[in-house]
Design a protein that fits this description.
With 862 residues, the chain is an alpha+beta fold. The protein has 18 helices and 46 strands. The strands form 14 sheets. A 5-stranded mixed beta sheet has the order 27-23-22-24-46, with no helix packed on it. Strands 33, 34, 36, 39 and 40 form a 5-stranded mixed beta sheet that branches. Strands 14-9-8-19 form a 4-stranded mixed beta sheet.
Length: 862
């Protein structure tokens, strides 16, 4: 081997490594059974276990990435964001000053505080200026700052910026005596380690980041609500999460939208982690040619109109979205940045289109909680209570330090004024001492020996100190005037009074807290704004841009029509194929329902309701939809599709959601029952949610809304009736769960209806028009699973049998009853025409039903 130094690459460490003849060369390769000799190179350096070395270095790197890049601190800011604001303040680019080039700020940040690439700094700066990213932008931009559709901002040399008004305001407390400072990367100047934010920016800015083995995701919140929550917690330190959530119910996204599952929020806020569903808001508009279009007016957080349009086009090309034949249109403008029109094809099912949009596009999206924050120098996932509590502690500390600093300055100034006043009281002696002194030191010694003052709060006079003596020597002659003497005394009294006030505040248990609460309320007054995002169980009928009411209900899903003006009483007729017609309610009962049905369809519901009351549609296979009332018709028509049905499914019933029910009992044809909370139906949406798992060969035939303590009567085709107590049934919380045995059936018998036990009598109606009225007392309450009691005999009268029972319904005195048949005939019956009889009495013909038709149900008023 030669003595030449081995060339080194740029990637190798810059050390002097030389290969010399002192190092043995490895022997030549061997063959056969010979074993090569292992050569040992001499090494006098330190040794390390590789796994431990990797762990320690990885931990050091991870800690740097998490603490100095990815995660925010309690002031709600990541290091780069904090440094941007700090640098802009140092440059004087505040809200009351002129805009300056963004490149100036970027250069200052990377040159003085953040030694990273300029693109990373500018990207962070852009996000802080975009009002669709946060409810409280920290930067006010001028120029092209990007769009919700993902259009990038213009280059930093073209845009201009300055701090927003809210950022400029909380920087008034920015000084080392109030918040902690630390040296910058070059240790040439200090930078703020935290900013003195005046409200919980951690919850309003909307932070997300990915670090080393951990991440952060904090949705944006409404500043007014966040402040209300912080104030309440400050005034009630023992407040519970439920009490706080009454003030801060959930996130508030800049683009609005609807939180589909608000019941998940409590868990997210308790643990600091979780996921919620957010859905855009939309309504239907009628187009020429008897067509309808879905108009999207709000989108989930960080979803742009172009993104939605491209997803719809892709879904249509892939065969997933089948109800459109033309390109969706982005019709947004400056007044409404999100507005997309999706036209349903002629004769298409608009509800299926809605369900497909919710399923295959970002019209419904998820928003995650991972509230990972740097506290006490370490990452920690915080719940809502701890975030607000730590902010209050931080703000309490800022105000305390601010007051202590103010008091310190006042005490120094007062100390100087008291020394000057002591000199003015003996001004002739002071002049004589100064004129007769050899130098300043001699003068100070003589002044200290002659002059005395009484410190603030003390009763005993003390000699002036060296610093006061120096101030006296430096005092200009103009201070000797009587006017200046009076001014100095007034100034001293003012400062002394303020020192007393501050001391009282700092020593009081509630003094600092009251200031904090007052400042929080003032921030809310100046910068608070109404909530934009709503909840699925809230009031979602907000006015749209064109003045119509957006019929978004349930989980923010659309209804079938846009109703403007006051609510109208209606009668709704629904068929098993999912189509429905709504007409204005009339005192005159029609002879036929105003709905044209195919041969395979049958009328399954006729209800009285209002145009502003949502509808709950339950299918035979156990899916619940919550939709709006369709547009009113004045003529007979096939109606509008309420829901999109899967093959082999059909509508079992339609219920108006304007009642005060607390629970619902689902009943199947083979006697299964399932009790659920009414909220499961009220919380459904146009995309459909499961409410019961129905076995093959069975189907849902009734859903009975009821309150606690109500009893339900189930009726079978063979004339049996079973009265059960609903309070003995435990509500099932899972929509995908099946039912339990409700009514025991014999042979080919089947359950045909279920109703509440309200009223004095039970009206039993046979399919071919026979009816009877039996006192409700003849139906004793039984446990579930029984066969009930005989209510009416389908085989009698013998010559003209009544036939199968169609349904049972309560008979209320003085109220007329309107029946409907499977083919849409409508009949009115005065219950007074039927005298109450016993269960054993044979039913009498009450209604003439057309050939091939059968009674199906009774018109229900909510």
């Amino acid at each position: 081997m030669s003595d030449e130094t081995t060339p080194m690459s740029d990637d190798m460490p810059d050390t002097d490594i030389t290969l010399t003849d002192d190092l043995e060369a490895p022997p030549p390769e061997t063959n056969g059974d010979e074993q090569a000799e292992l050569v040992h190179f001499p090494w006098d350096g330190a040794t390390a276990e590789i796994s431990e070395a990797m762990k320690s270095r990885g931990h050091a790197y991870g800690s740097y990435v998490n603490l100095h890049r990815a995660l925010p601190a309690i002031d709600g800011l990541k290091p780069v964001q904090r440094r941007i604001i700090f640098a802009m303040n140092a440059l004087g680019v505040r809200n009351d000053r002129a805009f300056k080039k963004s490149a100036l700020t970027v250069g200052a940040v990377i040159g003085r505080f953040h030694p990273h690439g300029d693109s990373a700094v500018y990207d962070a700066m852009v996000r802080m200026a975009q009002d669709f990213q946060s409810t409280t932008p920290m930067i006010e931009g001028q120029g092209n700052w990007g769009s919700l559709d993902g259009d990038p901002a213009a280059a930093q040399r073209y845009t201009e910026s300055r701090l927003s008004a809210i950022a400029s305001e909380f920087l008034s407390d920015l000084r080392p005596e109030v918040v902690p400072y630390r040296p910058n990367f070059s240790e040439t100047e200090d930078e703020a380690a935290l900013l003195p934010v005046t409200f919980p920016t951690l919850l309003t800015m909307g932070q997300s980041g990915i670090g080393w083995a951990m991440g952060c995701s904090i949705p944006t919140h409404n500043m007014a609500e966040v402040i209300d929550a912080a104030v309440y917690l400050a005034e009630h330190p023992e407040a519970t999460l439920k009490q706080i959530m009454k003030r801060l119910p959930g996130p508030d996204f800049p683009g609005g939208g609807v939180i589909v599952n608000p019941e998940k929020l409590e868990g997210c806020y308790e643990t600091g982690q979780g996921t919620i569903q957010v859905q855009g808001r939309f309504h239907l508009e009628n187009l020429p040619g008897n067509r309808q279009a879905v108009i999207v007016t709000e989108l989930p957080y960080q979803v742009g109109p172009s993104q939605l349009v491209s997803q719809i086009v892709k879904g249509a090309r892939d065969g997933k979205i089948t109800e459109i034949t033309e390109m969706p249109k982005d019709i947004a403008d400056k007044g409404q940045p999100a507005r997309v029109m999706i036209a349903c094809k002629r004769g298409g099912n608009v509800q299926k289109l809605i369900a497909d949009l919710l399923r295959f596009t970002s019209l419904r999206d998820s928003s995650s909680f991972n509230m990972n924050v740097v506290v006490d120098g370490k990452p920690k996932v915080l719940g809502l209570l701890e975030i607000l509590g730590r902010f209050n502690d931080f703000r309490h500390g800022v105000i305390t330090k601010r007051l202590e600093h103010e008091r310190s300055v006042l005490e120094r100034d007062l100390h100087r004024l008291l020394g000057l006043l002591a000199a003015l009281d003996m001004i002739d002696l002071v002049v004589k001492i100064i004129r007769g002194s050899d130098d300043d030191d001699d003068a100070k010694t003589k002044l200290i020996a002659k002059l005395r003052y009484t410190p603030h709060g003390a009763k005993k006079a003390l000699p002036i100190d060296d610093q006061q003596a120096q101030w006296i020597i430096d005092m200009p002659l103009k201070r000797l005037s009587k006017l200046n003497n009076d001014s100095l005394r007034a100034d001293a009294e003012t400062k002394a009074a303020r020192i007393d006030v501050i001391t009282g505040i700092l020593t009081s248990e509630s003094g600092v807290r009251e200031i904090m609460v007052t400042e929080l309320k003032e921030t809310k007054r100046k910068f608070g704004s109404p909530r934009k995002t709503v909840f699925s169980d809230g009031d979602l009928n907000a006015p749209s841009a064109d003045g119509a009411a957006e019929a978004t209900s349930g989980a923010g899903a659309v209804g079938l029509a846009v109703h403007s003006g006051p609510a109208t009483d209606i009668t709704l007729y629904a068929a098993s194929n999912g189509f429905a017609v709504a007409v204005a309610r009339s005192s005159k009962v029609p002879n036929t329902a105003p709905i044209t049905m195919s041969d395979s369809a049958r009328l399954v519901a006729a209800i009285e309701s209002r145009t502003d009351v949502p509808l709950v549609v339950v299918t035979e296979r156990g899916t619940a939809f919550r939709v709006q009332v369709p547009a009113l018709e004045s003529r007979k028509t096939k109606g509008v599709a309420l829901v999109g049905l899967e093959r082999g499914d059909g509508v079992a019933t339609v219920i108006a959601d304007g009642s005060t029910h607390t629970h619902a009992l689902i009943v199947t044809e083979k006697g299964l029952i399932k009790r659920i909370d009414w909220a499961m139906l009220a919380g459904s949406h146009a995309g459909g949610v499961p409410c019961m798992k129905v076995p093959d060969g069975d189907r849902i035939i009734a859903v009975v809304g009821h309150a606690e303590g109500d009893e339900v009567i189930m009726a079978s085709a063979n004339g049996q009736a079973l009265r059960i107590e609903t309070s003995k049934l435990r509500p099932v919380a899972t929509g995908s769960a099946g039912g339990v045995a409700g009514m025991g059936l014999k042979g080919a018998d089947r359950v045909v209806s279920a109703c509440l036990d309200h009223g004095e009598d039970l009206l039993t109606v046979h399919a071919q028009g026979f009816a009877k009225k039996v006192p409700m007392t003849e139906y004793p309450a039984k446990g579930r699973g029984g066969g009930g009691v005989a209510s009416s005999d389908p085989k009698k009268p013998t010559r003209d049998p009544a036939g199968e029972v169609a349904f049972s319904a309560p008979s209320i005195e003085g109220a007329s009853v309107v029946f409907y048949s499977e083919r849409g005939q409508v009949f009115s019956l005065d219950p007074a025409a039927l005298a109450p009889v016993g269960r054993a009495v044979v039913a009498k013909r009450a209604i003439e039903v057309g050939p091939g038709d059968a009674l199906a149900g009774v018109c229900v008023a909510f």
